[in-house]
Write a structure and sequence with these properties.
Two copies of one chain form a homodimer.
Chain A: E1 5-9, H1 17-27, E2 31-37, E3 56-62, E4 65-70, H2 74-86, E5 92-99, H3 111-121, E6 126-131, H4 144-157, E7 163-169, E8 179-182, E9 188-192, E10 195-198, E11 204-207, E12 210-214, H5 222-227, E13 230-237, H6 246-250
Parallel strand pairs in A: 1-2, 1-5, 2-4, 5-6, 6-7, 8-13
Antiparallel strand pairs in A: 3-4, 7-13, 9-12, 10-11
Chain lengths: 256, 256
């Protein structure tokens, strides 16, 4: 069998240590093409660039390894990677390793997971990896084994149609990771705490900050798994329909 | 009963005709507070502004009506509206009326619907409205009846916990709207068609364009409803877990 072609991206930007680490792992599995944002794009979610032109810069082009930066978002990187760089679909897309959690509600704000969902919409098996350590000096080494097992399983088994994976890895601080748990997204939210300041002209401005609030402790959730030193794997899809609510809302007799 | 407090936002910006129209309808129902982006923010999805400061500018402050613009995204507008402008939760959040469809896969790219989901995460009943006409001269008048019926029903009945509504209104071109249908999100995708150009220095650049592709014709979908001159109402949630896939992936024996 030919080596699988793996498209790699992230939202922390082309120079992020987490991306470099993911590239090295993927190069042991297949032919790697990196298309990643020039600079940090965290919190960009599923945004796309429609009001300004996109550019792609070649950084490395060798046999079995290519690397490009792009002035767009993670979702733009996936679109450009497929249509302009590869000119065909890769066998796998991986995104990350993100510096910080994309578990529970973080999935909705995440550029890392947006890239994964975009590839999934296009029918490409795709996985997002995140380490629960925001530091630029985070130790990604102990992620290797788990990233590799999960990527190889996705290549071997495929994924159900319309499903991608959100993988989060706990910071264990010397303890051992207990294994991998397939979970559901925990209920949680960010409580905004704006940092209110005045500029030198005495005009108000605000920095967005927040406090993470867990809203449940279900043992089948990603938050529980991570707190208990498991790698969490949540199968994610892009059907946002709350199917169970259709019947309820139909009772309103909107057409009376 | 006191007038409900309604927070209004959009992603086309504070001056968009669709927003003006929605404000006028909401003023017949309650006390209205508008917090909308200074300029167009379509395609920003669920992005948040974390790397630059946010500002809020007061435009109108009357009894029962206030209007503010903000330099952030639609999601920032919801957070600032709650925490800085109102300093409490509104009774309802509405977003739109968007110039163009947010049906089917468009929900994932939509700033309009991101604002709605953000309010939903915070437990606020919330609705996004979109008209299937991208023109700045779109005729929003015939939306009034449906926007009002749906908003009043949400105020009266509430919404199931963690559920918000994605409402799309067809362009009927003189024909009659047949009624309102509660639907699921249709399977569809955008097929990228980058417009490849050279700048005056002969360097490549790309404009993101695309072609919408419907992947099914189920009669219980929003796309079917809209094509058949119904207003579509999709209950949407922020649990992205593909629950049905958990069992499948557990068969992989990732911990072998």
């Amino acid at each position: 069998m030919n080596k699988p072609i793996i498209l790699v991206t992230n939202d922390d930007g082309i120079n992020a240590p987490g991306l470099r680490h993911l590239i090295n792992i993927m190069r042991t599995i297949g032919k790697v093409v990196v298309v990643a944002p020039q600079s940090t794009m965290s919190g960009t979610a599923h945004s796309i660039t429609v009001r300004s032109p996109l550019r792609v810069e070649e950084i490395v082009k060798e046999k079995d390894y290519e690397e490009y930066s792009c002035n767009g978002t993670p979702v733009d990187c996936v679109k450009l990677g497929e249509q302009i760089v590869l000119r065909h679909k890769p066998d796998l897309l991986v995104s990350g390793i993100n510096h910080g959690s994309n578990a529970s509600i973080n999935v909705i704000y995440s550029g890392t997971m947006a890239a994964v969902l975009e590839a999934c919409i296009d029918g490409i098996p795709s996985i997002g990896f995140s380490l629960l350590d925001y530091s630029s000096k985070a130790d990604f080494r102990y992620c290797d084994e788990y990233v590799k097992i999960i990527a190889e399983n996705v290549i071997k088994n495929g994924l159900p149609s319309g499903v991608c994976l959100n993988v989060n890895i706990p910071t264990v601080n010397g303890a051992e990771i207990k294994g991998i748990k397939v979970c559901r997204q925990a209920k949680s939210k960010w409580v905004e705490e704006f940092d209110e300041r005045k500029d030198p002209r005495q005009k108000d401005y605000y920095w967005l900050t927040g406090r993470f609030e867990r809203l449940e402790n279900g043992k089948d959730t990603d938050e529980w798994a991570l707190e208990n030193n498991y790698v969490s794997v949540v199968p994610v899809h892009f059907d946002f329909t709350a199917h169970y609510a259709i019947e309820d809302i139909n009772k309103w007799k909107l057409n009376a």
